[in-house]
Task: structure prediction
Amino acid sequence: MSRLPQIRSFSRVFYGQDPYLDAWLLHFMLENNIEHLINPRVNASAEQLRFMVYLEEGQLFAPCTDWMFANLLQSRMSRDLKREYSRTWKRLVLLIRNYSGDSFVKKKVLSLCKHIFSKAFKSPFMIPSRLHKRMLDIFLSQNALQDPYRELKKEYNRRARDFMNTPGYFQFISTCPGTTMRCERIQDLRWELDLAELKRFFCLSTWDKIWQKKDFLPDARQVDQELGRSWEGFENIMTRLFGPKNQHPLKILYLPSSSGGIIFDLQVIITLIRQGHKVVMALKEGFYYDYPTFWDFETDEVLGQVLKEASMISDSQMSKKELLKTLREHSLVVISDGSRERLNLYRTSITYARAWKESDLIIAKGNGNYRRLMQSTHVFTRDILCMYRDSKDQIRVQFKDKSPRVRKITEKEILAKTEEIKRQMLEARMNGQRVLFYSAIIGSIPGQTKTAIKLINTFVEYMRDRMSGTFIINPAEHFEPGMDGDDLMYMWEIVQRSGLIDVWRFQAVRDIEKSFELLGEKVPPIWTGKDATFSTGCTKEMHIALEMQKKFPEMQIIGPSPEQFFRRSEYGLGKFFDTNIEPEPERF
Result:
């Protein structure tokens, strides 16, 4: 095998620098089935990943720890990698033996998984958790199982709920902090109490003996021991995030890691909501051991009861507009992360990616989330707080700042910009001008965004020179650094539904041809025949235009006929703004 270049930072791996490395990276992506172009239905696009991870153009994101990627890059079985593969195999075998109902199926599944495992073991390209996911799918499908841990998770939640009715719980939660509180202002006193409450609920949410041991009743010594735990950095981190000096309510994406523990996670969430914050809690889409799943509330009376006030969102492709509306109306929203494995951002849903992007903070519980988020030198688009208990029963708290290059465009900023554009439209109308909105391709042709913007600006200037008494809105002139397709579509929909548009013009083939003529250039093959119908963003806008024309019949729509647009149904997440047209299924 050709020698691969030495890599000093595993979060700084780029395509296009070495042909042998590119070949290895592509093989790595294919073997782990996380390449978007090969399987776009289940794997996140680069745009979706950028909602969560700060990535430069051509940069690789590996959904594993740095040390795991370093071991896989060696293309040989190191001691550490062998240990991880062995743990994966033992966990799976235990599951197959305990939950396969039929002896024949048990032997078949074990034998099949051995073949898959042996192949991966001889040529270690697969991340052990991805290998585990593949074999887990085989086990579930061959046994016709949805969730073999369903009853166990219900029992965990029941034990956690029952613990909340014991004297030990009351002592743990209600014991006065004593004279250790430092109070110069009443606001400080209130925060000290909130901090103590958050710490205690976080502690309970990681104390797995409560739900894993039957009739667990800690004595006074054990309660005092838990209350007296010293958590390095916890108070400073929490005060920085939620303390008296931070008066801004936050949107929080909360990732629990175990049934039983989720009952106390919800107590943490109630405390955060009481402080004025909004929370989106993301659960697994389907079985992954004792992790709570989105659908558990349907069969688990205890979980259903504690989530009765939450807004349960099953839509895996929720739009930015719908998500923000739901967060305005509800303090707690529950979604699925779209996956059935350890946190893997390639396999998360569009709704999850948007929830991450709209959040200010990610709170991630458990060792699995800690490994994926903290034991990687990748930087993310949002601040992350991780919390888990290690093998020595010590609570670990770690905080990672978001990338300094990421600027979050807030809903308040978008709405302010929207109101300014509407003000200009209204002022133009009051001055006797007609308002024309120009919808055109921006990012629907890969690699042509700069050219698209140049074409729009050129043609709009041409129209302004030829039209008098017309106020023309050019979307390309209202871009702010940090805005993506979601932000822009959200902003423009508010403008478009204002009722202030007199003429809505959609880019036609002749517009593009005229733009290239004005630039003194010939139309390149990639632009030949293109018009607004090639853009899913423009398709969405055509739907809005037709709705607004029903309300305001005198509004004119100019350009390609509406029927030509409706090949496309949704703009690509985070893009400017295209998705592929799905072919019609063959009929036999």
